[in-house]
Design goal:
The complex is a heterotrimer of chains A (338), B (309) and C (293). Helices cover 63% and strands 8% of the residues of chain A. With 338 residues, chain A is mainly α. Chain A has a domain at 83-150 and 188-330: Orthogonal Bundle (MetI-like fold), CATH 1.10.3720.10. In chain A, strands 1-6 form a two-stranded antiparallel sheet. Chain A has a two-stranded antiparallel ribbon with strand order 2-5. In chain A, α1 packs across α12 (301-328) and α11 packs antiparallel against α12. The radius of gyration of chain A is 24 Å and the shape is globular. In chain B, the strands form two sheets. A seven-stranded mixed beta sheet of chain B has the order 1-11-10-4-9-8-7, with helices on both faces. The radius of gyration of chain B is 19 Å and the shape is globular. The longest helix of chain B has 14 residues, at 175-188. The N and C termini of chain B lie far apart (42 Å). Chain C has two domains: 2-45; 47-292, Orthogonal Bundle (MetI-like fold), CATH 1.10.3720. Chain C has helices at residues 5-46, 49-53, 67-97, 102-115, 120-139, 147-172, 175-183, 188-216, 243-252, 256-292. Chain C is globular. The relative contact order of chain C is 0.14. Classes of the chains: A mainly alpha (338), B alpha/beta (309), C mainly alpha (293). At the A-C interface, α1, α2, α4, α5 and α6 of A face α1, α3, α4, α5 and α6 of C.
């Protein structure tokens, strides 16, 4: 009796994963059929048909017998901008968060217990992990974004703009009436950089706490071995990091998985613009924020299928990160990523 | 240097569970009251004067332990240990589990500093300078002392990098010098012929005995003044143990060696001097031949012949 | 003792890295205190009794309270728990207590782990495709957003978490307990119900409470399932309000008074989660101590 109830519940878990993949794949099927693999390399995202004057190679409007000749651009869906947005925000977040997290993990393992502050600090880190994504979004929207808009971004602009070769950070090229013009990017604090920083804050606790556990499992005799040979504190830390490197890579991957799938906080501060811009000060969009923004309003069949295609890519990607990460962080499989 | 001595540590009372080297009071079943006056006094908590043979005083000393005491928190683990260690000889520390022999060994290179709540008093002089003096640089001190642990602990890198680790962390980059030092240390550790063709291979792939010889090579590569061996064969099979013992005898010709062992035959085979410890006190200390053949205390005689302990 | 230049440079480098590690820790703690502190500061100034007792008025200058949303979150979490707790606990028992079925439980454990890493927005979309669209077709409604769909999406997140914590807690129960019970002739289910589960009860409860806290803070899974509502409703067949959805709507909206409400609502949610975390930790610590003595 009990065995069967348990077995059934276990199978529910398997069914959940199957449902996730099958339902998304099935609903995305029209888009998969239509766009195929080209979906991930195309950067056009046009929900509705657009009618506009046709321009010749000289950039001038083409005139026909009945006046201006119009061209019709059909709806088009390509995931490259959101894949780029997800990759860029996640990578910047990792660059910021990984050194901080590893430093804090080393401190927690090798210093804090001596100072008898390991408990309180660990509690704070774990509470940080329990704060909902939405709270970071609200904070990012009302505190971080205005701070960037009013002080950080203008300051960076004053310092970096005169530097030769950094012009592109603050200017974008747009096409207006057939001509390419250059204009300053409006610095309103809702951009790729702010989104990345919010993500960095959000993945700090998970990378810190998993790395702490990984480092804690480094055998004591390894550390004593290096110290007995006259290693300094930092040299023995390096040996420790090296010993634990695969577990630490797993910790970083868990952080990456969380960053890539994070929705609410990013949606609120990234500016939500489906474009690829070289500048981190330009608004962008991630896969998750695109879904949060558009899925509710997607009435058109192909639009919805395209969004489901994006969701499927996001799912497969985070499943892959998780599978690899969990293989690496041996013995700590239960760590919730999200 | 605030960080040089900090590391992961569990409180001392947990330490006592995980390491056999910390004092655990054990009853001695065969101990017959009256038969062992020194042991009886120790069990009453006293620190009687040990039987120190004249022979140990007459040789040149490199280490001089004087009235050394150590506490793990509230527990006193070492009581007034005074013993000179002869330069260029092999000295063995024997005694039942928990008698403090490993603790004493780890006190010489101040590895016990890493354990929370450890306090010491008395002196351990290396070349006439107290290693516990205020101005001693612990890292420099440890570079002058090599240590090999109970379990082989190769680092997860190549054999070559393991051997030259001490030189690397001292900033040595000259390839030829490193290679030379590596070969020399591996030859001295009697491992060269077995690994010379695979120096770039991971050290984790070696057998237990080879790993321990690698650890010995790693410890002697920077030519330490004293080599500290903490039960180096306790995790090895009999054949590997035999090879390590031969190696210790060989190395004992070049280096001063202080070895902790729970194996009396091993102490008899490899050492020049032997110290018998009990419950954190020194009991008898003399030439190995004397300790095993002509011990002056009944306690020592019965211990080395396996009648008690 | 004087050191060579190279040696003292290494000491300095080590001290520097030590300081950097300490600074990293400090930075992380500071960020946490900044986020929590700011939310508390601004939120507290907008906190009022009305927030907890009144419902939205429709007037943007005087938007009323969040009673509907607080109720909504409580109902959603309880509904999700009604589905998620039994399934999760049973699955956890399966993973821990039937080692002879390791060929099945091994992969299931891995799947449960991987499921905890699925982005919550994807769960929301699955909820829409599975619980909203088919119901719309059945009832011939235009779109059937509902509290049930929202609770289903939250249960999806909850089940793997509860399963894995249950399993880990059961594993802490010493083997000798099971063997002792089986040796007395008890059946496997008797052993599980009378010996193993009671032994792990505290830990499992802790895990369940934390999982409920976790889903109470979720927004993305509810966007396309419960949808949100400005009405005080307890009928889960209707579009359903939740604290997080209401905060999101208000925070991203243009009206200052509503934004103030978003701060205050966030503070309520965070305070709830903080108390939950702290309480669970204290209880767990006390139990651990009790077990040692």
């Amino acid at each position: 009796m009990l065995r069967w109830a348990c077995r059934l519940s276990g199978l529910v878990i398997a069914a959940m994963l199957a449902a996730l993949i099958l339902v998304l794949a099935n609903s995305a099927l029209p888009a998969i059929r239509k766009f195929g693999a080209g979906f991930i390399t195309s950067s056009e995202w046009r929900v509705n048909e657009i009618e506009r004057p046709l321009r010749g190679p000289d950039g001038k409007v083409v005139m026909g017998e009945d006046g201006v000749v119009m061209e019709i651009l059909p709806p088009a869906f390509g995931a490259l901008p959101v894949i780029y947005g997800t990759a860029a925000t996640s990578l910047i977040a990792l660059v910021v968060a990984v050194p901080l997290s590893l430093g804090a993990a080393l401190f927690l393992v090798r210093v804090a217990p001596r100072l008898r502050i390991a408990g309180p600090v660990s509690f704070l880190v774990e509470f940080l992990a329990a704060i909902p994504s939405l709270a970071f979004g609200v904070w990012g929207l009302f505190v971080l974004a205005p701070m960037f808009q009013n002080s950080v971004a203008p300051l960076l602009r004053r310092i970096l703009e005169p530097v030769p070769g950094l012009h592109w950070l603050f200017f974008e090229k747009i096409t207006v009436a057939g001509r390419i013009i250059e204009r300053p990017i409006p610095l309103n604090g809702r951009d790729l950089l702010t989104g990345s920083l919010i993500l960095a804050v959000m993945i700090l606790p998970i990378i810190t706490s998993v790395s702490r556990d990984v480092l804690r499992s480094v055998p004591r005799i390894q550390i004593e071995g290096t110290l007995a040979l006259g290693a300094t504190w930092w040299q023995s830390c390096v040996a420790m990091l090296r010993y634990a490197r695969s577990g630490l890579l797993g910790a970083v991957l868990l952080g990456l998985a969380r960053a890539a799938g994070e929705t609410m906080a990013v949606t609120m501060v990234i500016g939500n613009n489906n474009q690829i811009s070289a500048s981190p000060f330009a608004p962008a969009q991630t896969m998750a924020s695109l879904l949060a923004n558009e899925f509710g309003e997607a009435t058109d069949g192909m639009h919805r299928a395209a969004l489901l295609y994006v969701a499927l890519i996001l799912l497969v990607m985070s499943l892959a990160f998780n599978v690899v990460a969990r293989k690496l962080v041996v013995g700590r499989p239960s760590h919730a990523v999200h | 240097m605030p960080g040089s001595v900090s590391m992961t540590k569990t409180p001392a009372r947990i330490e006592t569970h995980s390491r056999p080297s910390t004092p655990v009071v054990r009853p001695i079943p065969q101990a017959d009251s009256g038969q062992y006056p020194l042991i009886d006094a120790i069990k009453r908590g006293e620190t009687p004067e040990p039987m120190r043979h004249e022979s140990v005083q007459s040789v040149g000393q490199i280490l001089d332990i004087r009235n050394f005491e150590l506490w793990y928190g509230a527990t006193k683990a070492l009581h007034g240990i005074t013993m000179p260690i002869a330069a260029g000889k092999v000295t063995a520390l024997i005694g039942p589990s928990g008698c403090g022999k490993s603790t004493l060994l780890r006190s010489v290179n101040r590895l016990n500093d890493l354990i929370d709540g450890v306090r010491t008093s008395g002196t351990i002089a290396l070349d006439g300078k107290d290693v516990y003096a205020r101005n001693v640089d612990v890292i420099t001190l440890r570079k002058r002392l090599g240590m090999v642990f109970q379990k082989p602990n190769p680092f997860p890198m190549s054999i070559f990098e393991n051997v030259v680790y001490a030189l690397r962390i001292a900033g040595e980059r000259r390839k030829s010098l490193l290679q030379e030092a590596c070969e020399k240390a591996l030859r001295q550790a009697a491992l060269w012929d077995e690994v010379k063709d695979r120096l770039k291979a991971s050290a984790m792939g070696l057998s237990g005995g080879q790993q321990q010889r690698l650890c010995i090579a790693r410890a002697i590569v920077s030519e330490p003044q004293v080599l500290l061996l903490d039960e180096p064969c306790s995790a090895l099979d009999p054949i590997a143990t035999l090879r390590i013992e031969e190696l210790i005898i060989e190395i004992g010709r070049r280096y001063t060696v202080l070895i902790v062992t729970h194996n009396m035959q091993q102490a008899a085979r490899v050492s020049d001097f032997t110290a018998f410890m009990y419950l954190g006190r020194l009991v008898e200390y003399g030439r190995t031949a004397d300790i095993f053949q002509l011990p002056r205390l009944r306690e020592t005689e019965d211990y080395v012949t396996g009648r008690f302990g | 003792m004087s050191l060579s230049f190279k040696e003292s440079r290494r000491r300095t480098a080590s001290a520097f890295m030590y300081a950097l590690c300490a600074a990293s820790t400090l930075a992380i703690v500071t960020v946490l205190l900044m986020v929590a502190g700011y939310l508390a500061w601004i939120g507290a100034s907008s906190l009022s009794w009305n927030l907890l007792t009144t419902v939205p008025t429709g007037d943007v200058a005087n938007p009323g309270g969040m009673r509907h949303a607080i109720d909504g979150t409580i109902v959603l979490v309880l509904l999700a728990a009604m589905l998620g707790v039994p399934l999760g606990v049973l699955a956890g028992i399966y993973l821990s207590e039937y080692p002879e079925e390791a060929r099945l439980t091994g992969p299931l454990r891995f799947i449960a782990d991987v499921l905890t890493g699925v982005p919550s927005i994807v769960v929301g979309i699955l909820g829409y495709e599975l619980l909203v669209v088919p119901v719309s077709r059945l009832t011939e409604n235009s779109i059937s957003f509902s509290g049930f769909a929202g609770a289903g999406a939250l249960a999806f997140i909850m089940i793997p978490i509860v399963a894995r914590t249950t399993e880990e807690m059961l594993r802490l129960v010493p083997r000798s307990y099971r063997e002792g019970s089986l040796a007395l002739g008890a059946t496997r289910s008797q052993t599980i119900f009378r010996v193993v589960l009671p032994g792990a009860f505290g830990g499992i409860t802790t895990g369940i409470v934390l999982a409920m806290g976790r889903i109470a803070g979720e927004t993305a899974p509810l966007l396309f399932t419960a949808l949100g509502s400005r009405l005080l409703t307890h009928d889960p067949r209707q579009p359903f309000p939740s604290l997080t959805l209401q905060i999101y709507t208000y925070a991203t909206g243009p009206y200052p008074e509503q934004r103030r409400l978003a701060w205050a609502g966030m503070l309520v949610l965070l305070a709830l989660l903080f108390v939950l975390n702290l309480a669970v930790r204290i209880v767990a610590a006390r139990q651990a101590r009790g077990r040692l003595h």
